[in-house]
Amino acid sequence: MKTLIYTCPYVPAEWIAAHGLRPRRIVCRGANAGAMMLRREGMCPYARAFLHTALTRDDADAVVVTTLCDQMRRTFDLLTATSSIPALLLNVPAMWETTAAFDYYVEQLRRLGRFLKTLGGLDPSDDHLIAVMQHYQQARRSILGVQPHLSARRWAELAEDFGRTGPADLDGTLGDRPSVGIPLAIIGGPLFREDFDIYDIIEDNGGRVVFDGTETGHRGWPDEFDAAAIDADPLTALARAYFDGVRDPSRRPNDPLYVWLKAGCQSRSVRGVVCYRHVWCDAWHAELPRMRERLGLPVLDIEARNDGAAEQRTTGRILAFLEMLQ
Known about the structure:
Blueprint: E1 3-6, H1 13-18, E2 22-25, H2 45-56, E3 62-66, H3 70-82, E4 87-90, H4 99-118, H5 126-146, H6 152-165, E5 182-188, H7 197-203, E6 207-214, H8 227-232, H9 234-245, H10 255-267, E7 272-278, H11 282-295, E8 299-304, H12 308-325
Helix pairs in contact: 2-3, 4-9, 5-6
């Protein structure tokens, strides 16, 4: 079975799996961002790390990149210029409110399907696609269901495993005792694997992450599939769950992001928000004032830097934030 790698949450794993290929959503390693052979002026470390992964993974038979941000578009250009690995640039409309925008996304998924067939994939029947969608949806429900019983880091690792390997048996995942402390939300873009240390820093110092609104966490998942629509037209139901359900600051307008974040914070009695962002990601930096206004909660802005001195500063700032919330 061929493996297709990607990192953007607007790429539906179910669509790939239904064609008979293995979807593998990558959480990049920060160490790969520093590969000397891939240094490019003005290229963000996450995009560079994904490019390194696409070029060096032995199990990558094809790559899908999306237009969600300019940096990833550049990754596609560099990938196709330096490698013969099959690659597709999937266009994701920034404007989402119109019927035309949604129809365009559906057509992009059909285009992805045609790309998958060039790799040996087969057209899925409606019944097969529905079965795959239901299998993935049940897996997401199960992973969300165990979240209260796990530390934030363990849950993030479970979510990463799901993206990398697909639905799996959760037996043995409940031995990690739930953390206690001040309930917090963490919000932001994609995390490096090394960034998972932020969960430990928060929970080792009196906080408790009860809502993971990062791209590699819950925010990168689709909505539940519409039960009535899935039988009538499963591809449209799949597209709707991803197109409307993955909330990103790049969407215009991005009000649904704040509706979702506020509902998640209120339902979990969140008392403070950690916005964990990378210095090169302007989208999240620009959202900070609006985040404070719309959520009505204290927001701590943390710039992710993977070095020892930065970890000490981050620990100190989180301690001060938690003391303020007590």
